[in-house]
Backbone:
C-alpha cells in the first residue's frame, strides 16, 4: 500500500495505487519503472519542456498510474514547501500557481 502525503499529514489510512501500477499488474512487463519513477521523470521533463522525455516517461506506466504518481508528487511538493516556508498548504499551492490568496 502507498500512503499519500495528504494522508500522512492527516493520519489517514494508506491507499492502494492503481491496479496496473502494482508489481505484476498489467503493463508491469512492459516497463521496469514504477509509477513514481514515471511521475518524477514526467514532471521534471515537463518543467523543462522536454517533449521527448515526457513521452518516454508517459510510456512507462498507464495514464491512470501516471496521473496518480503526478498527483502524489504534487501533494508531497506542496507539503514540503509549505513546511519550509511556514505557510499553509493552501497558501503554498495558490502561490505556486500564481493565484491570489483565498478569501476567508
Residues:
Amino acid at each position: 500500500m502507498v500512503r499519500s502525503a495528504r494522508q500522512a499529514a492527516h493520519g489517514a489510512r494508506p491507499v492502494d495505487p492503481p491496479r496496473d501500477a502494482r508489481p505484476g499488474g498489467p503493463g508491469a512487463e512492459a516497463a521496469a519503472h514504477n509509477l513514481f519513477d514515471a511521475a518524477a521523470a514526467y514532471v521534471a521533463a515537463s518543467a523543462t519542456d522536454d517533449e521527448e522525455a515526457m513521452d518516454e516517461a508517459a510510456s512507462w506506466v498507464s495514464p491512470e498510474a501516471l496521473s496518480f504518481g503526478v498527483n502524489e508528487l504534487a501533494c508531497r511538493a506542496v507539503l514540503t514547501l509549505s513546511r519550509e516556508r511556514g505557510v499553509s498548504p493552501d497558501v503554498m499551492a495558490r502561490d505556486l500557481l500564481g493565484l491570489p490568496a483565498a478569501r476567508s
User: Anything to note?
Assistant: Residues 63-85 form the longest helix (23 residues). Confidence is low (pLDDT under 50) at residues 8-13. The two ends are 36 Å apart (CA to CA). The helical segments are 5-10, 35-47, 51-59, 63-85, 89-96.
